[in-house]
């Protein structure tokens, strides 16, 4: 009997030790949901958030920001530790209009505002709820500063936001870009004026009860809710082959009739000075002037016909950013770090390079020249609807970034300009893969004359 009592005491003590080891800055008043507690069993949750008091949209001047209410509800229901991200800049004293102008300027300039927090170490936490208002389409820039300081890779991250019409914005994409090896679960958003109501408690509870905190399932599922599950895959033979550059002299004909012999990479990858290596060829092509294959957004194999009726993800949410995921045809085909460029990566390339519309080997396209002198030819490839190829002399290339529930962003390259627009995700569009510029590239020269 004494032995049983002793063992029982030891088990209880061990359980109390584990509980205390996960406790930090927790609220003293708890109404933990048993079902949520069961799903979090074995995990150590944390809530971090930024919230702005002062003059708010609709609710007026408030002493506590909208996001703070949601953060505290999540803490109450999960028993998580909670820490606030506090901006050094005084956003609260600004009027609502002044705040909008300030955060727009921060967004456009990529400002990294200073912050303070009592949080010192995140090692013991494996489930982290990350909350903030949606400012200019995503988390406030001060939270970007937090992401830069704290390494949350390998953890389960769950976004939550308050807004007045933006939903989660691009917060899931921001988290995936900041932490490539984290698992991003489906987030929660609520309008700011509703965050203070009793109904918010029930909505937050229902959302939490719907979550699965099994990281292994989330990271390997081919049908994840957010599509933000990173695909871990070694380079395929095609991906490996693209680490060995082939260069050649090619003849380019300009619109004014001039001809020029150009030395350029014709297979492999090209450093265009933006921190990436751009594939010299389209996905499915063996030479720069060949159009390659067309893909519906999120599908990983080309097909004969592209219509709404045969699109695999019609009316389905597969994520805000599908780069590096199971829905990324470049990642699936090439492996390693190869992926579909995001909207921003395309924009950076096109904005920072010189453009000439030329003809190479009978194919019209854009010849890009980087500041470092490297050349990249992007051929006209057209788009495919049903079985018909539209405007084959113009370039159409997917970005990994979603535009809305039915469209995704496309880089459009007509003869006289370039642009970025949105197209139906079911349409057949080309892909130009990229990878991080952190590898050594072997080079050999071909004689194509």
Automatic annotation (TrEMBL):
Coiled coil: none annotated. Residues 64-209 form the Flavodoxin-like domain. It comes from the Bacteria. InterPro entries: Flavodoxin/NO_synth, Flavoprotein-like_sf. GO terms for molecular function: FMN binding. Pfam families: Flavodoxin_4. Gene3D superfamilies: 3.40.50.360. This is Flavodoxin-like domain-containing protein. It comes from Bacteroides thetaiotaomicron dnLKV9.
